[in-house]
UniProtKB/TrEMBL annotation:
It comes from Jeotgalicoccus coquinae. Its main location: cytoplasm. This is Histidine--tRNA ligase. Keywords: Aminoacyl-tRNA synthetase, ATP-binding, Cytoplasm, Ligase, Nucleotide-binding, Protein biosynthesis. One of its GO terms (cellular component) is cytoplasm. GO terms for molecular function: ATP binding; catalytic activity, acting on a protein; histidine-tRNA ligase activity; transferase activity. The keyword Protein biosynthesis applies. The gene is hisS. The keyword Nucleotide-binding applies. Homodimer.
Length: 420
């Protein structure tokens, strides 16, 4: 028997209504903050991710679904959203748009070859936003505010926003030097990845999942002490505006994020809920100032975040928050014989084309079973069609909630339901 590929899942009707609910809310909040949707292809030139995400990251090293197409091009299923959005910004010359920053959001499946785990899939759906073109602490704050707004709008409470500044490229160069000095003498005590990282990107040693408890990680120099005055001031302005807005956060000097191009503000949102398992990160993001230039684009900066719907739903489950199931149809037609079933088919066609949701029995069941079916489908009204009804072209329109019925012609039934 062929099964769903490892690390992927079918989202059945018993779950899909939750996705619809969440996605609708995300679209609403994006609109509140005046972000517009962008849709980029599901696959891109492999080179895009190698360059933009960076050769020293897990995504590029271990997790990409890369293939040759029949034209011998190397393509990769999109593992993350920022690189494609930035590619599109550059390709469509959005730096010339009248409105800046260009504020974009996406809601799209991502693909990563990862170890399967609760909250970790090989295909997962990310909602992400990017504001490209302006560097201003107020935009960083807008983004954090939107992020908190999203999670709180579902009623989630056990949230912890963690922020840090990794400074500008200047500050980072100084900091990286200090890290190399700090780790070099004992780097052989670290995992293989970290031994590579010390040359390629020393800051990412602080992000290592294997070595996070090593004493040298705990005693490592703090990025804050290496921020130049400009970077410090930028960070202070972000924090004081967050205080102003009453958005609670913690500063974690070891928060460096996995990707190479981040500068200034970096952040993660964690769930504090018990039973959330090993995975606690709901969302991550930050400012990227070198990325556009690195991709041969204009000298512009951006900031963004991404969250997955899968982990958002896990967080809701962990806090016992239920999503309302809006199930129901306007009318269920019960039928007593074949001719009635035929007429019901015609009526359904008319009802639906007038915007009324309706259904009938297709299994020739007894009236009692059809009534049960109407209940299960949460029908607001029912009619029963038998010989009499067909000859009079009328039926009793029964309201299920009250039990009240009205004798109406077929045409009147359609009109009444349409008005309601
Ligand atoms: P992690 O440390 O959990 O691997 P990451 O740093 O790889 O996360 P990002 O690339 O920043 O994650 O992606 C942003 C968000 O997307 C994460 O915070 C998480 O909510 C979600 N996410 C990442 N990978 C997966 C996955 N394999 N399955 C489901 N959600 C994911
Ligand atoms: Mg990951």
């Amino acid at each position: 028997m062929i099964q769903v590929p490892r690390g992927t899942q079918d989202i059945l009707p018993s779950e899909s209504y939750k996705w619809q609910f969440v996605e609708k809310k995300l679209f609403e909040i994006a609109k509140n903050y005046n972000y517009d949707e962008i849709r980029t292809p599901m696959f891109e030139a492999t080179e895009l991710f190698v360059r933009a995400v960076g050769g020293s990251t897990d995504i590029v090293n271990k997790e990409m679904y890369t293939f040759q197409d029949k034209g011998d091009r190397s393509l990769t299923l999109r593992p993350e959203g920022t690189a494609p959005v930035v590619r599109s910004y550059i390709e469509n010359k959005m730096q010339h748009n009248v409105e800046q920053p260009v504020k974009l959001f996406y809601l799209a499946p991502m693909f990563r070859y990862e170890r399967k785990q609760k909250g970790r899939y090989r295909q997962f759906v990310q909602f992400g936003v990017e504001a490209i073109g302006v560097e201003d602490p107020l935009i960083d704050v807008e983004m954090l505010s939107m992020l908190m707004h999203i999670y709180q709008s579902f009623g989630l409470k056990n949230l912890k926003l963690v922020i840090n500044s990794i400074g500008d490229i200047d500050s980072r160069t100084q900091y990286n030097k200090a890290l190399v000095e700090h780790f070099s003498p004992r780097i052989d005590e670290f995992c293989q990845d970290c031994q590579t990282r010390i040359d390629s990107n020393p800051m990412r040693i602080l992000d290592c999942k294997k070595d996070r408890d090593h004493e040298l990680v705990k005693s490592a120099p703090r990025i804050y002490d290496y921020l130049n005055d400009e970077s410090k001031e930028y960070f202070e302005r972000v924090k004081s505006k967050l205080d102003d807005l009453g958005i609670k956060y913690e500063v974690d000097y070891n928060l460096v994020r996995g990707l190479d191009y981040y500068t200034h503000t970096a952040f993660e949102l964690m769930s504090d809920s018990e039973g959330f398992g090993a995975i606690t990160t709901l969302c991550g993001g930050g400012r990227y100032n070198g990325l556009l230039e690195m991709m041969d684009g204009p000298d512009k900066t951006g900031i963004g975040f991404a969250l997955s719907i899968e982990r958002l739903l896990l967080a809701l489950e962990a806090e016992g928050i239920e999503i309302p199931e809006e199930k129901g149809i306007d009318l269920y037609i019960c039928t007593m014989n074949d001719e009635a079933r035929d007429t019901a088919g015609t009526l359904l066609h008319k009802l639906r084309s007038r915007g009324i949701s309706a259904d009938m029995d297709y299994e020739n069941r007894k009236l009692k079973a059809q009534m049960k079916d109407a209940d299960r489908k949460n029908a607001s009204f029912t009619i029963v069609l038998g010989e009499d009804e067909l000859s009079r072209k009328s039926a009793d329109l029964k309201e299920m909630a009250t039990g009240e019925a009205q004798k109406l012609s077929f045409e009147e039934i359609i009109n009444t339901l349409e008005e309601l």
